[in-house]
Amino acid sequence: xxxxxxxKLIEQFHLRSRLRFSVDTGHIWLDENRMLLMHAKAFGAxxxxxxxxxxxxxxxxxxxxxxxxxxxxxxxxxxxxxxxxDNYDVFRIGxxxxxxxxxxxxxxxxxxxxxxxxxxxxxxxWHNSWEAESHIxxxxxxxxxxxxxxxxxxxxxxxxxxxxxxxFRETQCVCQGHxxxxxxxxxxxxxxxxxxxxxxRAENLDGQLRELEAELAQLRNKLSxxxxxxxxxxxxxxxxxxFGLLSQAANSPISVLLLGETGVGKEMFARWLHENSxxxxxxxxxxxxxxxxxxxxxxxLFGVRKGAYTGAHESRPGRFERADGGTLxxxxxxxxxxxxxxxxxxxxxxxxxxxxxxxxxQKVNVRLVAATNVDLQRAIAEGRFRSDLYYRLATYPVTxxxxxxxxxxxxxxxxxxxxxxxxxxxxxxxxxxxxxxQALMAHPWPxxxxxxxxxxxxxxxxxxxxxxxxxxxxxxxxxxPLDEGASVGPSGIVSxxxxxxxxxxxxxxxxxxxxxxxxxxxxxxxxxxxxxxxLTRAARQLGLTRRQLAYxxxxxxx
Length: 558
Fold this sequence. Notes:
Radius of gyration: 30 Å
Shape: globular
Helix content: 40-55%
């Protein structure tokens, strides 16, 4: 549904005017229904505890049934607001109520309703699901959808107004690595899946306990067969696919080529491969081929004998010799000079290195792991990289996904990095604020995990001890734009920054010769006066930090 259509629908049913706040009595009302304004993080913690104490299936069923009841109440409200008329309008207002309550942005993509035949088929896209965000924060990405209470809401809502048991099911979820959540709804019996429909009914405790015991035994079996990712952090499908390939190569001597953008963690992957191989007790030697001048790279890789060139006063082993019996990691191998490529190819073919100035080769037993962010196929076509060397290196390629393709791992990575740098700087942190986490999720991540690590280190350093890391602590420049949505002012009026009426107001002010500095100064003075001189309280009214307000207040007359 287009934004203008949404706006008209909200205005048609006077949703904003029906939301009332009474601070004196401690009530929030949506028409005649009492509402609660809760921290999403607190409700997410409760949701997490349900999974921990009840097990997955029972927690999912409980959340589903809770959402079902909520959806039924909103359907009653929608019917009351709409009165007599086309029931399709009642169906359309459901997604708007869902968004209005801060749960998810829902867009109907398909609906086929035959009231006489009693048939229903609907599909809805979801963006910004609070439940998916919460699930990723606590559990990371996985194989199963996670928006159980939201699915319950949609099912309860449509069931109430359609007067037939309609069941929605999440067919794709952000928690599975998709860019949006999608739900499909149809009559319960049309699914042909009694097990899923049973989620909507209270379950037998004894049967659940037996199922939990079976799940636990199955999980233990899987864990015993699965390698631990150790310091490699991630649950996103793209990460798990790369890690799965890596783990299968761990016990073999096969050469591995790690591909991926700068900063994705290629050296971390290489170290994991070494530490989980039979060579774990032998040396791991790394060299960045792009950081060493071309005239020195051969000496660094293959060693040098005394007197090989002016200044070579003593023999020195190369990285191959130092890695003998272990693993050699060649980072940025695409930057090797043509001469170094020839010698590297010979080493891979013969298993011998010949130092500069030497007259005979020396056998080495090295497991080679190479990495590059260069398109080697293109480099071959342009004559910058040898095709025969490429085929030697690319026996087993593993592509590490960029961070923007595994956003569900950002929370997990950030938490681990916060712990790391809290130890370094001897600080205690409460973690990321919700806005800070949203900003990290919205960031394009050109520098990938390395960039995230830099931001987290900065955040830990700047955040107050024992406090949360906020947006301004993370980014040296402007943070990525966030979808602020609707806001509630001190008067209790819900306002929207994109409201067309605001646009008209701004246009009229500009036509009248609006003096921005004068109005800003008067607004700052008014906020400070209303706050009784308390700059912190005044800053909160203006949506500023105390430091920003103090600066404006100090310079208002200059």
